[in-house]
Amino acid sequence: MTTTARWSVCATVKAPADDVLRFVAYYLDAGADCIWVFLDNPNPDAYAALEHHPKCRVVTCDIDYWQRIFGRRPKKHQVRQTQNATRTLARAGAVDWLLHADVDEFLVAPHSIATMLGDIPHNAVTARVRPMELLSAETFNGGNMAFKDFVPAGPNRDTIVRQLYPKYGAVVKGGFLSHLAGKVFVRTDHPHMELRIHNAFLDGVKNPHEVTLNDMSLAHLHAPDWASWQAHFDYRLEKGAYRADLAPAQLREKGGVTLHEVLSGIVAQSGMTGLRQFFDEVCADTPALRERLEARGLLKIHDLQLDAKLHHHFPDHDPLAATV
Predict the structure, then answer these.
(1) Of 116, 136, 299, 301, which has the fewest Cβ atoms less than 10 A away?
(2) In this model, does residue 322 exceed pLDDT 90?
């Protein structure tokens, strides 16, 4: 007998209104029963579009909000995200599962997400979705996007990644600039669950009874194009995905260096020219990289139809006429 589950998404976002609404529109289209949006900075346009939507809950996380729930505004965005996600979980009892995602992350599934979640064994408390990372291009026009797929951990991962990225494969963990962990769905009937960015804890146990949703992927638009990557680079180097406290791709005793050290070194030695060379090998959607990925079965093509879904669900806020 086929069963379906009710599910929701929560995100703490700091992005232009159109990007926020693309995210929400995508998940409305995917069948989410509720979408919680925490605006990390005031965003009147996004708030106005979401506040009366029956499937949306929108909160502006201003100083008063943080004073009320936390006593102060946490300095780190990761703490703000996890506080909001954990609070959402405590209020999400009307659905069976909650996904904590970022505004640039989109679930891709071969069929109904509700059905896939309904098929998870009853004893599973968390369900992990692995990422695939976007190949950067100057324009997509709402059409097909190319992704590098997740390379599972194992004895051959390092060899595969070095073959895919001959110059920088040794320092780019799993071939991804951003996370390999993906994100987790968590059941909502455990009131003491605490959420983090990529994990969940129940009574001190990390990701209890976890399963992996192998047929589902998390499409991560980490670096859509060169200009976007440049715009986010300094912040990510200091506080985000490339920050200094993250571990290197290889153990230190084996010569491993962190991505922070590599990128900082490139900036110091060759500036923007060096960064562009790094970007072109690791991020850019080139025929050569597509060929290497395809040979390994790691090239994935998807049309997320972000503009079309934005136009459908929020036509008054669509910046372009949808063409797909």
Answers:
(1) 301
(2) no
d(CA 187, CA 269): 48
H or E stretch at 211? strand 210-220
Mean pLDDT of 9-17: 97
| Selection from 184, 132, 131 nearest residue 7 by Cα | 184
Spatial neighbors of 251 by CB under 8 A, at least 6 apart, are none
Instruction: Give which of 236, 237, 284 is closest to 264, Cα–Cα.
Output: 237
Residues 131-156 pLDDT 10s: 999 999 987 655 789 999 999 999 99
Q: How far apart are CA 124 and CA 116, in angstroms?
A: 13
Note whether 249 and 256 are within 8 A (CB).
yes
Q: What is the pLDDT of residue 157?
A: 94
Distance CA 223, CA 200 (A): 26
Classify each residue of 219-232 as buried b or exposed e, where b means 16 or more C-beta atoms within 10 Å of its C-beta: bbbbbbbbeebeee
CA distances from 162 to 76, 119, 166, 201 (A): 33, 37, 5, 34
- pLDDT tier at 219, thresholds 50, 70, 90: very high
Provide the β-strand partners of residue 9: 35, 99
pLDDT of residue 212: 98
